[in-house]
Design brief:
Blueprint: H1 2-31, H2 37-61, H3 68-94, H4 104-112
């Protein structure tokens, strides 16, 4: 049972990582000028490698099982920082429309579209 839960957790984490990576790639393609994409991708890859190196350094400096809780807290804080930074980006981009369930364009389409007849 524990091995199957471990595999399920690893698989779920990988699926989440891949879907997040696809989302970031799509956002970059939609919002960055084509001539600047190489620079943005280079900085993104550099940051990925830097944080991967930081991960390896933390594991080397705290190899004892007693330090695992501290590593988990550090990891969760980095993930929370990522969420806060993305929320800040979304708030700066969308402003007061951040918490709307749909965009104003979708509302206009539903209002302007004629309804289907109810009788056959």
């Amino acid at each position: 049972m524990s091995v199957s839960l471990l595999f399920a957790g690893v698989i779920a984490a990988r699926v989440g990582l891949w879907s997040f990576d696809l989302t970031v790639t799509q956002l970059i393609q939609e919002n960055v000028i084509e001539s600047e994409r190489g620079v943005i991708n280079g900085v993104q890859n550099s940051m990925n490698y830097l944080l991967d190196l930081l991960h390896f350094i933390m594991v080397i400096l705290a190899p004892n099982p007693e330090a695992f809780g501290l590593l988990v807290i550090i990891s969760v804080s980095f993930v929370a920082m990522g969420h806060i930074m993305y929320f800040g980006f979304a708030f700066k981009s969308l402003g007061s429309r951040l918490f709307l369930c749909c965009s104003p364009e979708q509302k206009e389409e539903t209002v302007d579209s004629p309804s289907l007849p109810t009788t056959v």
